[in-house]
Input
Amino acid sequence: MSDPVRPESAGRAAFLDLETVVRNVTDQLAGFRRRALAAEAQLRDLERATARVAELERAAQEARVRAQALERALTEAEQATARAVAEAAAAAVAVASAPVASVTGPGTDAREDAALSAENAELRERLHEAAERTRLISERVRFLRQQLGNGGDK
Output
């Protein structure tokens, strides 16, 4: 007729079941928390790595722009050197082909001799200036080649 289970033992069994459920939920929550903390740490690491990659990309772009500028400057310097060499050669030809009238002979005029001497002096001066410009441009070209060879180091 009556159930042999006592009311306090039924309450105790329910309490034990509830305690087991709470312990399982607590263990699961602790596991979820550990996984969430690990995921947050990974996310922070990825954000740092992404920021570093962006910084490196900016530096690479700046290096590419600098290399292009150095290449343009090198090309311009090489062209200027070629022009200066051509000018120096033309001046040398002009000096070499200019008649030298160091001795006035019968039929040469003293004014003509003075004019030719002045012209020779002017041509020698131009030749000297062209040689100096060629040397300066050659030094610039050498410097730019060193910069390109060093990868644009500071």
Notes: The chain has one domain: 7-149. The chain is about 85% helix and 0% strand. The mean pLDDT is 83.
